[in-house]
């Protein structure tokens, strides 16, 4: 006898929940505003020079940074070492992994106001010492990278331009 009414009770409960949701939302589901879908990158990464690549970071708006966890992925080339360029403090961690084709650097900014950058300001982050004579390779900032805003600890969106070198053979 209990099994006979169990399915009916579940069906009634589901109908009541659906009707409650419709009444609470006014019968209309909330819409996202168009501006919510537009993401403006706070910083842009780009490269200068192909024989001794230098990673540049440009502020797309006024900002202050607490930390940068930078991951560089590469293929087709051997990275011998990475050198901090001095515009950022010395990284708290730096490693070149030839096995994973990855360069990892962690920058922690200890000043209370963080690293302040004005819109349009560009700084040199690091240079890479790569094996000479390689003509086909790619180096890019990995999506694992995190640029952390001072004060809020929010991870800021970034734009990345890969360095792609192709031979002209």
Structural summary, described in words:
This protein folds into two domains: 29 residues; 129 residues, Immunoglobulin-like, CATH 2.60.40. The chain contains one helix and 13 strands. The strands form two sheets. Strands 3, 5, 6, 7, 9, 10, 11 and 13 form an eight-stranded antiparallel β-sheet that branches. Strands 4-8-2-1-12 form a five-stranded mixed β-sheet, with no helix packed on it. The chain is elongated and about 80 Å long. The chain starts with a helix and ends with a strand.
Salient structural properties:
169 residues; Immunoglobulin-like; 2 domains; 8-stranded antiparallel sheet; 1 helix; elongated
Task: Encode the helix/strand succession as letters.
Answer: HEEEEEEEEEEEEE
Shape: elongated
Termini separation comes to: 83 Å
Q: If you average the pLDDT, what whole number results?
A: 83
Number of continuous helical runs: 1
């Amino acid at each position: 006898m209990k099994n006979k009414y169990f399915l009916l009770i579940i069906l009634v409960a589901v109908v009541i929940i659906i009707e409650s949701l419709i009444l609470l939302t006014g019968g209309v589901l909330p819409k996202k505003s168009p501006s919510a879908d537009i993401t403006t990158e706070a910083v842009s990464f780009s490269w200068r020079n192909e024989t001794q690549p230098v990673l540049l970071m440009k502020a797309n708006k006024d900002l202050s940074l607490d930390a940068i966890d930078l991951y560089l992925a590469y293929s087709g080339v051997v990275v011998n070492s990475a050198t901090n360029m001095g515009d950022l403090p010395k990284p708290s961690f730096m490693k070149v992994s030839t096995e994973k084709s990855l360069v990892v650097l962690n920058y922690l900014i200890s000043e209370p106001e963080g690293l302040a950058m004005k819109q349009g300001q560009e700084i040199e982050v690091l240079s890479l010492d790569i094996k000479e004579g390689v003509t086909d390779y790619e180096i890019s900032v990995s999506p694992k990278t995190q640029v952390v805003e001072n004060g809020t600890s929010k991870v800021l969106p970034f734009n990345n331009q890969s360095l792609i070198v192709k031979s002209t053979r």
